[in-house]
């Protein structure tokens, strides 16, 4: 697709301030774009350029290890107006760990992303996604009873499959059309995702969709504290 001269004014939708997972209520035709596992040099920066070209904002759930390795790129995501949340430190299946190990992994990821963002005066948002969408009742309850906003997935692009960019775009559009709205999962670490995004966003625009920007509700001037690994376990949690 040739570079657009002017950013779209039709695809960018409303900003939704979220205080809990329950606040994420989308209207028909509304889409939330999310990107997991980054930031990654050569991929995330290209995705940022495409999103800017279309005038839309996304939510990036970053790995602590990736943000630690690419702090300037993590900062650029936030400075471009996108929402940055966390996704553990090493993309571990939390369901395979014991409770304290899982909490430690989540906390380590938050700390690393937070430190990376702080280099440009940016703050980590409270959004979090479970790697592999693997969770336990205890972990979900623990996080949601705190200040964490767990992001689920309505439409999985499966861009981690070794398919062509066109196949990923078509599959995602078909699933979105069937559902009518939803949170879409991409990963900003794959060349196929970089390649398919312009055509995918053009199709959204032509289909009359709008991209909703998620932001945390204002929690005060000091923002949100990063969770601590030694937080006490919740008694009686699922």
UniProtKB/TrEMBL annotation:
Record CDD domains:
CE4_NodB_like_6s_7s (cd10917)
Q: Which SUPFAM superfamilies match?
A: Glycoside hydrolase/deacetylase
Q: Name one GO molecular function term.
A: metal ion binding
* Example of a GO cellular component annotation carried by this entry: membrane
Under InterPro entries, the record lists:
Glyco_hydro/deAcase_b/a-brl, NODB_dom, Polysacc_deacetylase_ArnD
| Alphabetized UniProt keyword annotations | Hydrolase, Metal-binding
Pfam families from the UniProt entry: Polysacc_deac_1
All copies of domain NodB homology, residue ranges: 29-212
**Gene Ontology BP annotations:** carbohydrate metabolic process
Superkingdom as given in the UniProt entry: Bacteria
Q: What does this protein do?
A: Is involved in generating a small heat-stable compound (Nod), an acylated oligomer of N-acetylglucosamine, that stimulates mitosis in various plant protoplasts.
Q: Which family does it belong to?
A: Belongs to the polysaccharide deacetylase family.
In its UniProt entry, what is this protein called? Chitooligosaccharide deacetylase
């Amino acid at each position: 697709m040739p570079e657009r001269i002017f950013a779209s004014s039709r695809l960018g939708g409303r900003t939704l301030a979220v205080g809990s997972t329950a606040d994420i209520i989308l209207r028909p035709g509304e889409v939330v774009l999310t990107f997991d596992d980054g930031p990654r040099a050569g991929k995330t920066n290209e995705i940022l350029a495409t999103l800017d070209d279309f005038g839309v904002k996304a939510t990036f759930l970053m790995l602590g290890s990736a943000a630690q390795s690419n702090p300037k790129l993590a900062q650029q995501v936030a400075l471009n107006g996108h929402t940055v949340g966390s996704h553990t430190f090493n993309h571990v299946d939390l369901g395979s760990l014991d409770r304290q190990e899982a909490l430690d992994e989540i906390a380590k990821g938050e700390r690393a992303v937070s430190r990376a963002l702080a280099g440009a005066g940016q703050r980590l948002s409270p959004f979090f996604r479970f790697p592999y969408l693997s969770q336990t009742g205890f972990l979900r309850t623990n996080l949601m009873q705190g200040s964490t906003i767990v992001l689920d997935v309505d439409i999985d692009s499966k861009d981690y499959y070794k398919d062509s960019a066109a196949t990923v775009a078509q599959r995602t559009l078909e699933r979105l059309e069937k559902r009518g709205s939803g949170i879409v999962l991409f990963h900003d670490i794959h060349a196929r995702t970089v390649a398919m995004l312009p055509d995918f966003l053009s199709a959204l625009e032509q289909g009359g969709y709008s991209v909703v920007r998620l932001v945390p509700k204002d929690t005060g001037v000091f923002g949100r504290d990063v969770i601590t690994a030694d937080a006490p376990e919740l008694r009686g949690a699922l």
